[in-house]
Structures are given as C-alpha cells and as structure tokens.
Amino acid sequence: PAGDTVVALAGLGKEYGGVHAVRGVDLEIRAGEVVGLIGPNGAGKTTLVNMISGLVPPSSGSATVLGAEIGRTPVHRIAAAGVSRTFQHSKLFNRLSALENVLVGAHLVSRPTFLRRLLWLPSARRDESAALRQAARCLERVGLAELAASRAEALSYGDQRRLEIARALASDPSLLILDEPAAGMNHVEARRLSELITSLAQDGLTILFIEHNVGMVLRTCTRVVVLNFGEVIASGAPAEIASDPAVVEAYLGSA
Ligand code: ATP
C-alpha cells in the first residue's frame, strides 16, 4: 500500500553559472520507501539532496518536502517538518562522547529550555533527562548502546558512520537523507548498514540515500533512481535498474 507523499519534485533544476547540475527532475517519494540515488561523479546527486533538505535553493521547478515548499522555507523549518540528514564527510565532535554527539542532534538546548534553565526552573532538568533518554534510544537503535560513553574518535569507522545516523535520528525525523553512508565501509559494515536501513524503514521512516556501492543499493532499496548529467535516466525496482541498458551504459558498466 502506497503511503503519503513525502517528497514531490516537479521540473526541479539547479544551475551554477550555465552548468546544469540538476535539470528537470520529477520525482515522488512516498512514506516508507527506501530510495537509493545513484549516478556517476558529478551527476548532480549531492545538489539534488541539498535542495531536498533545503540547503540549496532550486533555480527552476518546484518541490515540496513533508508539505514544506523548498526555496521558500528556511532550512530550520524544513528540519522541523521532519527532514534529517547526514553528510558525506563526517561531522562528529571527536572529543565528545557518542551520547553527547547524539544530544547535539536532539537540539537539547531549545530556546524555552534555555530560558527555563536561566530561571532555574525544574522543568529544564526534566527536558534534559527526556533528551538523554531519547539520545540513548537513538544509540541503541543503531547498535551503539554499549559505546555511549566512548569518545567519538575512539569508535571504529563503521561505528562512527552509524553514530552519525543516530544523531540524525535524534530529531525524530520522518524523512532521513543519508549521503554515501557506506563510503569507506568494509563488506561486513556495509551489510550491517543495509540491515539497519531496512529496519528503520520497517519502523516507518522514509529514507533517501546517495550511494556508490551499487551492490548495497540494490539489496537495500525499494526503489533506485539513477541520475546522469543532472537528469533522471531511470527509476524503478532494483532488479529493473540492474538490467536497464541505459543504466548499465551510463553507470553500472563503468563502476
Ligand atoms: P559526486 O558523486 O562526485 O559527489 P554528484 O553526483 O553529487 O557527484 P554534484 O556534486 O551534485 O554531483 O555536482 C553536479 C554538478 O554541479 C557538477 O558538475 C559540479 O561541478 C556542479 N556543482 C555542484 N555544486 C556547485 C557549486 N556550488 N558551484 C558550481 N558548480 C557546482
């Protein structure tokens, strides 16, 4: 059964001084889908997810994400609507513990909490312990409960990447966007990541991720979208995509 529309893109484009990074993209993502975005280097994948997460305004077309209109909605409002993401390059705080890194994602010190804390009201401490419990749940969700007190820099590479996902979960998103989550992972770590993504989707999250590890994409996604020169050249179930001649020529063949 198809879920509600989470992302709706119509003719979405982004131009950088004459370079069409993304051009005429029509795409709908429904609740509960796990969509993998693949394509050669420079195909426009990062630009597309940057637009969807509200970081980069489109030059043409229209897009709504969880009801928010991209290009007219400030990025923090898009986050508040339920969009959360990780980045291609780790943005962890190395010297903070795993738990503290997740708390950063939970925006622990919201403005009302800050004011209440200034006034020394007990509700501020209540909010804090709720945030701690929520952060601990996020760590547990990605299998890092035992490492909550370890510094981020002491975690293995695969654990660091999962910690980034835990942090992205801390804001309790509906749409989770992952930018090359398996990059640099070994085979075992990538498999474990696949299982995590699948189980997050089973919990009702919608997931969009960019990934170069095609095997991982094909076994994890419900749908694969292929970009080439800024345009969608194919979109379909993993098995369809793997045998699509245009995809094989543009991407899989050279991978
Ligand atoms: P990769 O897999 O290497 O990360 P990608 O598919 O994510 O590539 P983008 O990074 O979105 O591709 O880039 C698409 C095109 O847009 C490229 O030609 C790139 O040089 C160009 N581009 C992206 N961002 C900018 C920018 N800020 N200014 C100018 N050109 C840009």
TrEMBL record:
**What is this protein identified as?**
Branched-chain amino acid transport system permease protein
- ABC transporter domain location is 7-254
Task: List the taxonomic lineage.
Answer: Bacteria, Bacillati, Actinomycetota, Actinomycetes, Geodermatophilales
Q: Which domain of life is it from?
A: Bacteria
Compartments where found: Cell membrane
